[in-house]
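Let us practice reading a record.
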Amino acid sequence: MQTSPNAKTNTQTPLSKIYFLNMQITDAMTLCGEMLKKCALVCEKDSDICATIYAAQSQNNLEENQARFSEFVVWCKGFFGANVLFGDCLDSIALERLKAQNLMCATAESCTGGLLAYHFTRNAGASAVFLGGVVSYDNSIKQGILGVRESSLQDFGAVSEKVVSEMLHGVIDRFGAQVALASSGIAGPSGGSAQKPVGCVFLGVQKRGEKPLIEQYFFTGTREQIQEQSCQKALEMLLKII
C-alpha cells in the first residue's frame, strides 16, 4: 500500500475522493496497494470510509496522471463492485445512491440549522429523493413536530443519543420517508459544558424499520466549521446504510 506519511505534506493536486462501503478502509487500502503502485498513485486516508487519491510526487504529467487514475478506477469497480465510489461532492454521491435504490429521505436538524437539507437541495434533481426537513432548533419543536418525549429531554438533554433517536423516528413517521438523518449538538462558540463541550455533536441516520446508526463526535473550529463538519460526517454515515 502506498500512503504519504502526512496528508499536509502532499503538494500534488488531488485526483479524486474514494469511498469504501461495507468494509474497513484500512483493509480496502491494503487490497488496493499493488494497483496503486502500478498506477503510480498515492492514497491518503481522510476518514473511516473516505480517502484521497493523488498522483505520486514524481508524476507531473496531467494527461498521464488522468490515464493512470482511470485505469485504477476501472480496476476498483471490477474488484469492489458497488462498494466503491469516486467523486469530490459527497452530497451528490449520496443523492445518486438514494436515486438508485428509490429511497426518499428527510432530515431532522438542530445544531446544523438546515444546512444538511441544503446539501441535498443544492443539487439539481434533489426532489426525486428529498422530501424535506425540520429545523427543530427549539425543544418545543422537537416535541411538538417530531414527537420527542419531554422525559428524554429532561433525562438525557437535547444533545444526546436518545433524543437523536427519537428525532429520526419522528421525521420518518411524519414525512413517510424511507431514510432519515438527524443532528443535535453544540456548535458554539458558547453553550458547552465539561460533559458536552462546544463541538460535541450527535448524528444519526436510519432506514425505516431498521436500527438507527447514531454516533457522537467532537469537532473543532468555528461555529460554521463545526456545522459543515457535522453535515459531511452525516452524509458519510448515510452512505454506510444505503
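A brief commentary: The mean pLDDT is 93.
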